[in-house]
Design goal:
The protein has 117 residues and is α+β, with helices and mostly antiparallel strands. A five-stranded antiparallel sheet has the order 1-2-5-3-4, with helices on both faces.
Length: 117
């Protein structure tokens, strides 16, 4: 499994990238990560999928609205990637990052996992 880990103010962010053959792959990959990371604080994600019609979705999974899933989706759009799911798992380290800090952290984690795309 391809992943990248970054630490920001004691919080651990682990980014994963999955290529999608169907939208069913999204649910499968998310369920597997939820099992693997039972003790995580947040499992945020975004995907872009294109087969006849474009589907996109993101989730902040309890982070303040627009601070996690949307930044991940924006990176996917900026790189013009489709049929890809990026999930960022966060383990809270005890220091609040604020809205701007969260956006930067999730953007960085997503950018790192997609560095060679």
């Amino acid at each position: 499994m391809n992943n990248v880990e970054i630490i920001i103010n004691k919080s651990k962010f682990i980014a994963y990238k999955f290529f999608l053959n169907s939208l069913d792959d999204v649910k499968t990959n998310l369920n597997n990560l939820k099992i693997e990371h039972k003790k995580s604080t947040h499992i945020c994600y975004a995907y872009l999928y294109n087969k006849e019609i474009i589907s996109e979705k993101f989730s902040d999974d309890g982070e303040p609205s627009g601070t996690a899933g949307l930044p991940i989706l924006n990176v996917l759009k900026k790189k013009k990637l489709t049929n890809v799911l990026v999930v960022v798992v966060r383990y809270f380290g005890g220091i609040k990052l604020g809205a701007g800090g969260l956006v930067r952290a999730y953007t960085k984690a997503c950018s790192e996992i997609l560095k060679n795309e």
